[in-house]
Amino acid sequence: MQKKLLTFVGGRQNIIATMHCSTRLRLGILDENRINKNEIEQLVGVHGVYYIGGQFQIVFGTETVKKYMLAFANELSFGSY
User: Out of 2, 21, 47, 78, which one is annotated catalytic?
Assistant: First the structure.
C-alpha cells in the first residue's frame, strides 16, 4: 500500500518532507496538483485527507500512522520529524 500511496501523492519527486502526529501522516508537497486525493481516500485505513498550510495530511489513526511514516522515510531516504 505504501507504493500506491507514494504514486498517488505525485511520487518521490513531489515530497520534500515527512512528519506525523498521533493520527496523521503529514507531507511537505511541491505541487498539490499532482496529488490524487480521490484514490488516496479509497485506500484501506485512510480516514480522510486535507491540504492545510502547505502540508498534505492523510488521516490514518493512531495504530497505523507510525508504520506509514517509517515506510515513507525509508523509501524517500530522508529523515522525519
Answer: 21
